[in-house]
Here is the input.
Amino acid sequence: MRATVLVRPKPGILDPQGEAVETALEHLGFTVSGARVGKVIDLEVEAADPAAVKAQVEQMCERLLANPLIESYEIEVTG
Amino acid sequence: MGLPQPRIGVVVYPGSNDDHDALWALAALDAEAIPVWHEQRELPALDAVVLPGGFSYGDYLRCGAIARFSPATAAVREFADAGGLVLGICNGFQILCEAGLLPGILLENESLQFVCRDVRLTVERDELPFTARCAAGQELVIPVKHGDGRWFAPPQLLAQLEAGRQIVLRYAEPCNGSVGDVAGVCNERGNVMGLMPHPEHAVDPLLGSADGALILASLVEAARDRAVALA
Here is the structure.
């Protein structure tokens, strides 16, 4: 089964990448605010059902994919 | 009879690039400096360990996040848990933070620019195995070279570390946006320390500063004391 992990800088964590992206978008003429840059991690996981996939990926996030001090994560399991 | 040379290991990860400078500097300060390959699950008999600077495993995911799972890092954790002296420099500091051996984490510089220059630092603690040759309040000039050196800890953790005197070095000038201007921290027990500046690049006046030798010579001396105690 396929799982997608979205890793985001936690609210309140300074994200200079997000700020740089925001400034660049403004230079292109867009009006934006609150740009934040995170990561997407796509995985193929062997497991019996979506709940089991989610449980495994949660472990992966806690142990490696995200650092809980600065990042939050969301897991999406797709068929 | 001369004093015994302490044995100090320098862990070499794929992507480490300051390992040779660290080995050279430690040997120049009269240690027997021994490279330790990252696949080694057992450390040789050592009196201290240095995790050098570089870009271990390409700094993929987050700096230090992959190196944390190296066989040698597991061995370093056991060494530190047993009270062994461990110093992490730059990428080594990042690895120790990711491994949970040191508090906080290193994020991309506030400026998003790679900073490569001498910086002034203030010594906060002078009784650690890594700073015994320094004096509290002393200013050191040691170079930094990093893109991800902004040390961060949430306010509650920072307050706890300040109260526990775990901040060892601070930048005396703007550098990378670290909270509290933190340049180096230690663990609660004081046997593990990490810093972003590179003492191994400042061990001879010819290099612009020999202040880094104060940190490394402190480590060599503390490691020698341990070697003597064990002999």
About this structure: Chain B has one domain: 7-230. The CA atoms of residues 86 and 192 of chain B lie 5 Å apart. The mean pLDDT of chain B is 96. Chain B touches chain A at residues 61-62, 65, 69, 98, 104-105, 107-112, 150, 152-154, 177 (CB under 8 Å).
